[in-house]
Amino acid sequence: MQKIKVKYRKGEEVKFISHRDLMRAFQRAIRRADLPVAYSQGFNPHMKISWGNALKVGAVSEAEFAEIQIDGWIRPHELVERLNRQLPRGLEILEANLV
């Protein structure tokens, strides 16, 4: 298992979506990119992603962070490429590093 810290951008196109909708957009993109993300155990498993502080609705940012736990091994630059192909316009992974 590995952890990858990603730096992403929330642009003008998506500035009016809430933090919860932003999380759902990332989760959908991860599923579409077929990334081997780790899931919690229990009755209602969810992706193991740690998010930074929530932005207020209407705000844009050039440097937000999240930490994704991967079940297996993937190169950080491959994660960036695969996720960026699936994310909506306005959301973009800028860089990824192993933790």
TrEMBL record:
Could you tell me which InterPro entries the record lists for this protein? DUF2344
Q: Sorted alphabetically, which Pfam families does this protein's record hold? A: DUF2344
- List, for all copies, the residue spans of the domain called DUF2344: 3-97
Which protein is depicted?
DUF2344 domain-containing protein
Which organism is the protein's source?
candidate division WOR-1 bacterium RIFCSPHIGHO2_01_FULL_53_15
